[in-house]
Amino acid sequence: MKLIPTIIQDxxxxxxxxxGYMNDESLKKTxxxxxxxxxxxxxxxxxxxxxxxxxxxxxKSIDFDCDKDTILIKVKPAGxxxxxxxxxxxxxxxxxxxxxxxxxTIEDRKKxxxxxxxxxxxxxxxxxxxxxxxxxxxxxxxxxxxxxxKKRLIEETVDLLYHLFVLLSKKNIKLEDVFxxxxxxxxxxxxxxxxxxxxxx
Length: 201
Prior knowledge:
Blueprint: E1 4-10, E2 16-22, H1 24-33, E3 37-40, E4 45-48, E5 57-64, E6 71-77, H2 98-112, H3 118-125, H4 127-147, H5 150-170, H6 175-196
Parallel strand pairs: 1-6
Antiparallel strand pairs: 1-2, 3-4, 5-6
Helix pairs in contact: 2-5, 4-5
């Protein structure tokens, strides 16, 4: 029975969560169920990660290395991955970018629509209400930059970012898509700069 080392990585943070082993059967079940299954060398059987704790690893992508002898699985963890209760078997959970955390909260509100939530009221109000708030907050940012303090400008900027994130979520655009576009433009600018920079004589 061939066992393949399998690296589990958090899709949103790129942190390595754990290392396990798979065989053909566990890989097939992983692909089918979209949850990570391993082969336990001690118990001599397949086991679903989270079968006791319910801290499942939801599969986002599966890749092999160049030699096809190691698997990399990117996941969305449902809870701590390590049996000790830690986020990762290798280190504690890293600090999350506050913009990423804000967008994640908005996505959660969109999914669950909790009562007495301002974000819920925006989603229920529809696209026109959300666009109206984005326009209103844009005006507030402009006014703050002309007439008010830096503190007010910062506060109004946060309000605008929040409502922009609600708009993106409403249109089913992920924050990762925005980051990818920024990276694409940065790479394009870098290539253009290199092409126009004269070489040394």
